[in-house]
Automatic annotation (TrEMBL):
The lineage of its organism: Archaea, Methanobacteriati, Methanobacteriota, Methanomada group, Methanobacteria. The chain crosses the membrane at residues 20-45, 57-76, 82-103, 115-137, 143-165, 177-196, 202-221, 242-266, 278-299, 306-322, 334-356, 377-395, 415-439. It comes from Methanobacterium formicicum. This is Major facilitator superfamily protein. GO terms for cellular component: plasma membrane. The keyword Cell membrane applies. It is a multi-pass membrane protein. Residues 1-442 form the Major facilitator superfamily (MFS) profile domain.
Length: 480
C-alpha cells in the first residue's frame, strides 16, 4: 500500500489541478507532502522498531494509514488534501521503515537475495502499478475514490499481521529528537526552495535555501556527536554501503521522474484518458514482477555488482530512447520504452537491496532498512522537484493548467519530457559506475561465501549421517 500510494495520485494530478483550479507547482505538493513526511520520519520509526518491536510499529502504521486514507477522500480543498496526505505519509513511514527488517528476520542468508527480490517487486511494482490503479479508479469513479481502496486492503492486512507476526520483547528507546527535527526541517526547506525556484520566487528561495543549508549542517553535526543518532553517518564509511545507497537513490530518481512526468505527456499531448494512461504505465511493473526474483537469485549465486551494472545500462538505454517520443507518438511507443525501463530497474534493485542489507550485522537490520527506505524516498521527493523544474524550463506554468495541449504548447511539453529523460539517463550511467564499487574485493567475497557454504554443507551432512545411523539402529533392533 505504501508504494502504491506514493504514485497512485500521479495520473489524477492533471485532473486535481483543474478541479481545484491550481497550478502544477501547487498540486505537486499533494505528492510532496506525502513523501516528505514519509522520508522525514522513516529513520525515527526504524529506530523505534529496533527497540519497541518492528511488528508493533508496522501494525500501528496500518491503523493510521486506513484512517488518513478516509480523510484524503473527503478533502474539501487542495490545502486540506495536502495536509491529510502529509499525515498519511507519517503513517506510511511507520510501515515502510521496518518492512525490510521484517523480511530479513524471516529468511536465512542463503536465500535472502530471492526474498529481497520479491520485496523489490512489491515496492517497485507498487510504485509502478499505482498510476494504473489510480487511473482506472479515477477514470470511472473520480479521483476521491482512489484513496478508498486502502480501507479494505488495510483492514485485511492488519488481521493477517496480527495473527502471523510474532511480537518481540520491548526494550528502552534511545531517542534522538533533535536529529529527527533537524532532518525534517532541512528536507522541508530544501524541497520548498526547489518549489519556489520553480515558481520563479527567487528572493524567497534564497532565504529558504540558506535555512536548508543551516539545518542540514546542524543535522550532520548532531548525528556525529550524538550517542544514539537517528542516522549513523559512520555507516557510510563502508565504501560499498555508501556507493550502493547513492546508486539506489539515483535509480528511484529516474523511475519516479517518469511516473510524475509521463502522465502529463500522455494526457495533455497524446490526449489519452486517465484509465488508458494508467494502463500504459503498467509496462514497467509487468517486467519487474517477472525479472526481479530472477535477478535476486542471480545475486545469491554470483554477487550483486554484475546484475546491478547491467540494469543500470539497460535503464540508460531505455531513457535515451524516450527522446524519440514526439507529439505524434502512440501509447504503444511509450509502453515499449517503459517496459525496457522496467527490465533495467528489475535487474538493478534486487541485487542492490541485498548488497545493502548484507553490509551490516543482523542487529542493525532495522537501521539498514530505515536507511534504504530513506534513500528510496529521498529519490522520490527530489524526482518530483527536478521533473517539475525541467518541464517548466520548456513550458510556462499557465499553459500547463490546460486539460489538453495543441501545436507549439504540446511540442514544448514534449521537449520538457526530453530534458527529464536525458537527466535520468545521465543518472543511470552514474548508477553503473557506482555499482562497480568494491569490485576488487569480489574474489575475497567469493572465498568467504564458499567458506560459509562449505560449513553449512558439512553441518547438513553430519545431520544426514546422524539421521541415517539412527534409522539403521531402529531397523536392527526391529529385526532382532
Amino acid at each position: 500500500m505504501v508504494p502504491i500510494n506514493a504514485s497512485i495520485i500521479n495520473v489524477s494530478l492533471p485532473t486535481i489541478s483543474v478541479y481545484f483550479g491550481v497550478a502544477l507547482a501547487t498540486v505537486q505538493w499533494v505528492l510532496i507532502s506525502y513523501l516528505i513526511t514519509l522520508l522525514g520520519f522513516v529513520l525515527f520509526f526504524s529506530r523505534l522498531g529496533d527497540f519497541y518491536g518492528q511488528e508493533r510499529v508496522y501494525m500501528a502504521g496500518l491503523v493510521g494509514f486506513v484512517a488518513t486514507s478516509l480523510l484524503c477522500s473527503l478533502s474539501p480543498s487542495v490545502e486540506a488534501l495536502i495536509i491529510f496526505r502529509g499525515l498519511q505519509g507519517l503513517a506510511a513511514a511507520m510501515m515502510i521503515s521496518v518492512s525490510m527488517a521484517l523480511v530479513r528476520r524471516s529468511f536465512p542468508s542463503h536465500i535472502l537475495g530471492r526474498a529481497l527480490g520479491i520485496y523489490a517487486v512489491a515496492i517497485a511494482a507498487g510504485l509502478a502499478l499505482g498510476p494504473a490503479i489510480g487511473g482506472v479508479i479515477s477514470g470511472y469513479l473520480g479521483w476521491r475514490a482512489i484513496f478508498l481502496v486502502n480501507v479494505p486492503t488495510g483492514i485485511l492486512d492488519f488481521v493477517f499481521c496480527y495473527q502471523i507476526l510474532k511480537r518481540s520483547t520491548r526494550t528502552a528507546v534511545k531517542w534522538d529528537i533533535p536529529g529527527t527535527l533537524l532532518q525534517f526541517l532541512g528536507l522541508f526547506l530544501t524541497v520548498l526552495t526547489l518549489n519556489l525556484v520553480e515558481q520563479a520566487s527567487y528572493l524567497f528561495a534564497a532565504f529558504t535555501g540558506v535555512g536548508a543549508v543551516v539545518m542540514l549542517g546542524l543535522f550532520v553535526y548532531q548525528e556525529l556527536h550524538c550517542q544514539h543518532p537517528v542516522l549513523d553517518l559512520r555507516l557510510f564509511k563502508r565504501k560499498t554501503f555508501g556507493a550502493f545507497n547513492l546508486s539506489l537513490h539515483f535509480n528511484y530518481l529516474c523511475m519516479y521522474m517518469m511516473f510524475f512526468a509521463v502522465p502529463f505527456y500522455l494526457q495533455k499531448v497524446l490526449h489519452l484518458d486517465q484509465a488508458t494512461t494508467g494502463l500504459v504505465l503498467t509496462a514497467s511493473p509487468i517486467l519487474m514482477m517477472v525479472v526481479a526474483p530472477i535477478s535476486g537469485m542471480v545475486s545469491d549465486r554470483f554477487g550483486s555488482r554484475i546484475p546491478a551494472f547491467a540494469g543500470s545500462m539497460v535503464s540508460a538505454v531505455a531513457l535515451l530512447s524516450m527522446t524519440q517520443l514526439t507529439v505524434n507518438s502512440t501509447a504503444g511507443d511509450v509502453f515499449i520504452r517503459l517496459a525496457v525501463m522496467g527490465l533495467g530497474v528489475a535487474l538493478f534493485q534486487s541485487p542492490t537491496n541485498k548488497a545493502l542489507m548484507s553490509q551490516l550485522p543482523t542487529e542493525k537490520s532495522g537501521v539498514a532498512s530505515g536507511i534504504i527506505a530513506t534513500t528510496r524516498n529521498l529519490g522520490m521527493v527530489f524526482a518530483v522537484c527536478y521533473a517539475g523544474l525541467l518541464i517548466h524550463l520548456a513550458i510556462s506554468p499557465e499553459l500547463m493548467q490546460a486539460s489538453q495541449l495543441q501545436g507549439v504548447a504540446a511540442a514544448n511539453l514534449t521537449s520538457g519530457l526530453h530534458l527529464v529523460v536525458i537527466f535520468g539517463a545521465i543518472l543511470s550511467v552514474g548508477m553503473a559506475v557506482l555499482s562497480l564499487a568494491g569490485l576488487k574485493n569480489k574474489k575475497k567475497a567469493l572465498v568467504k561465501y564458499e567458506q560459509v557454504a562449505l560449513k553449512k554443507t558439512i553441518q547438513m551432512e553430519q545431520k544426514m549421517v546422524k539421521t541415517v545411523g539412527m534409522a539403521l539402529m531402529v531397523m536392527v533392533q526391529h529385526t532382532k
